[in-house]
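for the writeup, i need someone to sanity check this before i put it in the appendix. the sequnce is what the collaborator sent (i think, or maybe the updated version? ugh). structure was predicted straight from it, no edits. if anything looks off just tell me and ill rerun, i have time this weekend
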Amino acid sequence: MAQKDVPPRWDRKMQQRLARGEAAALGEMYDRFASLVHSLAHRVLGDERAADRVTREVFAHVWEHPETYDPKQGPLRSWVAAVTHRLAVQRLRATETAALPQGESGSAQELESKLRRASVAARADYIVHSMPAPLRAALELAYFQRRDYRQTAADLGVTEDEARRRLRLGLQLLSTAHNVGTPPGYGGAV
C-alpha cells in the first residue's frame, strides 16, 4: 500500500532518478503505487486481466516519460493515479466501442454513462485510500459496520463531537467523487 503524506522532496528525487534511467527507482515506485494503480484500473474496468495490463502500461509510461510529471501540479501519487485513470478509461472506451453495433447512439450513450459511473467509482476509491487514517477509520465504522456517530466515537476512543467532525469531513471529501476528471490534487493527467 502506498505511504501517506509522502514529502514532495521524495517525489522530485524519484522523478530525477527515473529520468536518469535508474531501474531501482521504478521498482520503488512499483512497490509504493502498484496496489493503488491496480485497484483504480480494476474499479474502472471491472476485469482483473485488463487491470493487470493497465498496471503494466502505467509503469511503462512512468518509465518512458518521467518528465511529464510536474511536482508543482501535485504529488507523484496523484499523477500516477491520473495516468491510471486516463489509460483505464481509454481501454474501456476502446473495448466497449469495438463491441458496439455501428450507428447505435443509444449504445454510445450507455457507454458514456458506464464510463461516468466507473470514473466516479475510481475517484471515490482514490479519495478513500488517500484520506487520513482517522477519517477513513470513522467512515469504515459508519459505512461497513453500520455504526452511528456515538458508537463510532466509542470505538475510536474520541469524543462524539470529534467523531461527527471526522464523519462530516470524510463525507465531504467523498462527495467530490462526482467531480469526474483527474484525482484530487492534480491539475492534469499527463
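The helical segments are 8-19, 23-45, 48-64, 76-99, 105-130, 133-144, 149-156, 160-175. DSSP finds eight helices and no strands in the chain.
thx in advance!!
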